[in-house]
Specification:
- The strands form seven sheets. The chain has a six-stranded mixed β-sheet. Strands 11, 13, 16, 18, 19 and 20 form a six-stranded mixed β-sheet that branches. Strands 22-21-26-31-28-29 form a six-stranded mixed β-sheet.
- The longest helix has 11 residues, at 3-13.
- The chain has helices at 3-13, 170-180, 326-334, 394-399, 526-531, and strands at residues 24-34, 45-48, 57-60, 64-71, 79-82, 108-114, 120-126, 136-142, 156-165, 189-192, 210-213, 218-225, 231-236, 241-246, 249-256, 258-261, 266-272, 279-287, 300-306, 315-316, 354-366, 376-382, 385-387, 431-433, 436-439, 444-451, 460-464, 469-476, 495-496, 498-501, 505-512, 517-523, 534-539.
- The protein is globular, with a radius of gyration of 22 Å.
- It has three domains: 24-142, Cupredoxins -  blue copper proteins (Immunoglobulin-like), CATH 2.60.40; 156-334, Immunoglobulin-like, CATH 2.60.40.420; 354-547, Cupredoxins -  blue copper proteins (Immunoglobulin-like, Sandwich), CATH 2.60.40.
- It contains five helices and 33 strands.
- A hairpin with a 2-residue loop joins β14 and β15.
- Bound molecules: CU-O-CU linkage.
Length: 559
């Protein structure tokens, strides 16, 4: 069955009687080992229901989603619904040791959350160890019944998941890196809906993903970057892409031939099948504008296939941008504006209660056992604090008032100032701790995320749990608090949950802390999360009736 036909069937199954306002959608996630034969490897990978990528969750805005997760693998597991706001339901957010203890082997946990005020494409993924390499899938939130998209309705829709593939076991890859103190091996291939594609295959006869189109129709691609460590360019030979949404928020539509998508980000694009009948290549390739960082240079490919194309007809190739094509990346991100219509206003906080500057970057700490690293190890930090994972989940510690799990002294500014992107300090060591930054309910927060050049400047896609934020400003070099705010866009900035901090530059984000709980913020390059580029916000309960964390579910896993 063609994938878009499958999508159509799924979508029509969602058609509800008009009197039903919202409903509960039940899913079962059986976490099991599975050998995916098309990837030509003898190893089994951790999957949900034996699928790679995992099953897509469909819901409508306003629905309640109930997912029973059964852990049948040797690893502890937790699942994160990336970008779902989880209003007052942090228990269902998923990051291990932040909002819950992981689900142990043989145990189950039911994630139960309501999708409020959101519609669009998101993703779900494992949020422990490196399991999200293979444990991930799409999360599609359709608008409420009868509410149209704010753009011409496409004829068909399809979910496209981009990811990375390692021939060897990913847990072994990261464990080896931790032991050595050095960077982990890069992936062996990128994938498009689970296939590296016909061009660079990791073995013969892997085939590839095919998007079948009919001339004259329009298709909406729900693109998801589920890769662990790489930002990706995506393009389709001979076709323009019209961007209509990022991170489940509508944007002012614009046309481009290449998109940039970081791990954790999602992008909806419209593609018109308006070219001559034939086959056209889809290509996903790495963006990395730091020369010394090793990346997977393979290009994943798939095929856009017009009906009526002769089997023998050649494929029109797509030429991916070079890996360091910063101008291509900038052209895309600089074009993003929220739709900011009457129906979907951009509620950008205008007055700020907490004005924070967070440096994000790497560091080097001594490590007596790191032979390969010559007695030192690479670490990462926010404001020079390398986050130490607790053994009790932070949200439980907060809710039950368990002392000694975390401290609330996360620094709102760098502990010592230096020329972040230029002359580096001689001491590159970081401190460590389990620190959170505390804010009151409904406070407004501005964070300048400032990259550092420690080891090397690098683009960090930073993800905030529990909120969308507005990306109000961005620049190169060191943020200047006197002049840079004048250039902020406080009218229609893009609203996102994950944002790329440019190499050797900064971004400014703003959000309203209208969701009580403990909310993780971290670099969505998994290698940097492992190294400690993570922290959490603690948002106190408000005084109103719907401004407190709801009590934890009975089956919340224990540590
Ligand atoms: Cu998609 Cu904390 O991650």
């Amino acid at each position: 069955m063609d994938s878009w036909v499958r999508v159509l069937i799924l979508v029509s199954c969602l058609a509800l009687p008009a009197f039903v306002e919202s409903r509960t959608r039940h899913y079962k996630f059986n976490v099991v080992m599975k050998n995916i034969s098309r990837l030509c490897s003898s190893k089994s990978i951790v999957t949900v229901n034996g699928q790679f990528p995992g099953p897509t969750i469909y819901a409508r805005e306003g629905d309640t989603v109930v997912v029973k997760v059964i852990n049948n693998v040797k690893y502890n597991v937790s699942i994160h619904w990336h970008g779902v706001r989880q209003l007052r339901t942090g228990w269902a957010d998923g990051p291990a040791y932040i909002t819950q203890c992981p689900i142990q082997t043989g145990q189950t946990y039911v994630y139960n959350f309501t999708i409020t005020g959101q519609r669009g494409t998101l993703l779900w993924h494992a949020h422990i160890l490196w399991l999200r390499a293979t444990v991930h899938g799409g999360l599609v939130i359709l608008p409420k019944l009868g509410v149209p998209y704010p753009f011409p309705k496409p004829n068909h829709e399809t979910v496209i998941v981009l990811a990375e593939w390692w021939k060897s076991d990913t847990e072994a890859v990261i464990n080896e890196a931790i032991k050595s103190g050095l960077a982990p091996n890069v992936s062996d291939a990128h994938t498009i809906n689970g296939h590296p594609g016909p061009v660079i295959s990791i073995c013969s006869s892997t085939g590839g993903f095919t998007l079948n189109v009919a001339p004259g129709n329009t298709y909406m691609l729900r693109l998801i970057n589920a890769a662990l460590n790489e930002e990706l360019f995506f393009k389709i030979a001979g076709h323009k892409l019209t961007i209509v949404e990022v991170d489940a928020t509508y944007v002012k539509p614009f046309k481009t031939d290449t998109i940039l998508i970081a791990p954790g980000q999602t992008t909806n694009v419209l593609v018109a099948a308006d070219q001559g009948v034939g086959k056209y290549m889809l290509a996903a390739s790495t963006f990395m504008d730091t020369a010394i960082v090793a990346v997977d240079n393979t290009t994943a490919t798939a095929t856009l296939h017009y009906s009526g194309t002769q089997a023998s007809s050649p494929t029109t190739f797509a030429t991916p941008p070079s890996r360091n094509a910063t101008p291509v990346a900038n052209r895309f991100t600089n074009s993003l504006r929220s739709l900011n219509s009457n129906m979907y206003p951009a509620k950008v906080p205008q007055k700020i209660d907490h004005s924070l500057l967070f440096t994000v970057g790497l560091g080097i700490n001594p490590c007596s056992t790191c032979k390969a690293g010559n007695g030192s190890r690479v670490v990462a930090a926010v404001n020079n604090v390398t986050f130490v994972m607790p053994t009790t989940a932070l949200l439980q510690a907060h809710y039950l008032n368990i002392k000694g799990v975390f401290t609330t002294d996360f620094p709102g500014n760098p502990p010592f100032k230096f020329d972040y992107t230029g002359n580096l300090p001689s001491n590159l060591a970081t401190t460590s701790g389990t620190k959170v930054y505390r804010v009151s309910y409904n406070d407004t927060v501005q964070v300048i995320l400032q990259d550092t050049g420690v080891i090397a400047p690098e683009n960090h896609p930073v993800h905030l749990h529990g909120f969308n934020f507005f990306a109000v400003g961005k620049g190169l070099g060191n943020y200047n608090p006197n002049t840079d705010p004048n250039k902020f866009n406080l009218v229609d900035p893009a609203e996102r949950n994950t944002i790329g901090v440019p190499s050797g530059g900064w971004v400014a984000i703003r959000f309203r802390a209208d969701n009580p709980g403990v909310w993780f913020m971290h670099c969505h390059l998994e290698v940097h999360t492992t190294w400690g580029l993570k922290m959490a916000f603690l948002v106190e309960n408000g005084n109103g009736p719907n401004e407190s964390i709801i009590p934890p579910p009975k089956d919340l896993p224990k540590c």
